[in-house]
Design a protein that fits this description.
Length: about 180
């Protein structure tokens, strides 16, 4: 009896989670939410010495697994009914590549999405700039933002894994309302 009751509770919890995720995708499709995505897999931590924002050869970049993850994100979004979106990205090559491989539209670099891993003193300024960028999105505009772990953690308090996405309700509350956490595809 206990096992049957536990199984029923687990199935009910799974059903609720799926309903919540369905509602989150609906909010994203309607522009009542944004998708904030940590760039896809790029082996390593931080950036190598000699980092230059204008030279991808000096940066930690996506590997083939990361490029495949980014393509799967694009497929997942299209399957969810999002065939185009306003795509904003960090200027780091691994974020830009993630955004480009999703193939949802023109990728717009946004400095507020840049990593501050090596300069944590800029965290408050960048997080405030990111909030302002989300506030000025047109009502109903579907938006996907590709950034870094430190930026997402500063905004939400959540430490996402590479390629993980968060659907956040608009307007952004303090802290943002997380409608769904989407595992890497």
């Amino acid at each position: 009896m206990c096992r049957a009751g536990l199984l029923i509770c687990l199935l009910y919890s799974l059903e609720l989670a799926q309903a919540d995720e369905h509602d989150a995708w609906q909010a994203l499709r309607e522009g009542h939410a944004i998708l904030v995505l940590r760039h896809a897999t790029a082996p390593g931590l931080g950036d190598p010495g000699g980092f230059n924002i204008d030279d991808c050869k000096t940066q930690r970049n996506l590997d083939e697994r990361g490029r495949a993850e980014a393509r799967r994100w694009g497929a997942r979004l299209r399957q969810a009914g999002i065939t185009s979106a306003r795509v904003l990205s960090s200027r780091w090559c691994r974020a830009l590549e993630t955004a480009q491989f999703m193939a949802l539209g023109v990728v717009e670099p946004l400095p507020a999405l840049d990593s501050f891993f090596t300069s944590p003193i800029t965290e408050r300024h960048q997080t405030a700039a990111l909030r302002r960028a989300v506030e000025v999105l047109a009502p109903g505009e579907v938006a996907v933002l590709v950034t870094h772990q430190v930026n997402i953690t500063a905004l939400t308090g959540i430490f996402p894994q590479s390629g993980e996405g968060l659907i956040l309700a608009r307007p952004l509350a303090v802290p943002p309302v997380v409608l769904a956490r989407i595992a890497p595809p």
